[in-house]
Design a protein that fits this description.
The chain is an alpha+beta fold. The chain has helices spanning about 10-20, 40-60, 120-135; strands at about 25-30, 35-40, 65, 70-75, 80-85, 85-90, 100-105, 110-115, 140-145, 150-160, 160-170, 175, 180-185.
Length: about 190
Amino acid sequence: MGNGPQSTDSVIAALFESIEAPETVQVELIGGRIVMSPTPVSGHGGLLRRLFSRFLEPNLPEGMDVPMSPVTIMLPGIGGDGYVPDMVVFDEDANWDFDDWKLPADVVHLVVEVVSAGRESQHDDREVKPFGYASGPIPLYLLIDPLRQEVTLFASPSDGKYQERHTVPFGGRIPVPDPFDAVLDTSIFFR
């Protein structure tokens, strides 16, 4: 006989691990759902390029890196979810899986998501991922929301929840704490 039936979560996690998607598709495991979506469009890319060149690159702490390819962040606290943020800052000497482009959550300092137009994507980025990233715990989650023309910084994760949340309209300024200790002027997101 075997060890009995596998739990639904372990079957879904195994399926998630086995998916070999084309480069134009990113695959995430979010709250027990396998989510496949196209890689970000040019609007996303423009916002991310401006964030990188005008804020992250000049303020990037020594020993940290920003990969230019999508990576999956494995979140151990919530059933092995794996999120693919639009941008991530992590320890450059981290021991991670280059073959699968997977990073453990404990080497990540900041994740960035840009909200897309799809209703499910909006819900995931605004409602689900803050809890997932906080469970990592990922110290900082920056949410750029071009649909609402606002930026939110989630900080100080504790018990699977961010204790601080600061939202400003495009054009406002957000202090970004350690390890950056800099102010993000969100006017960089205006076209």
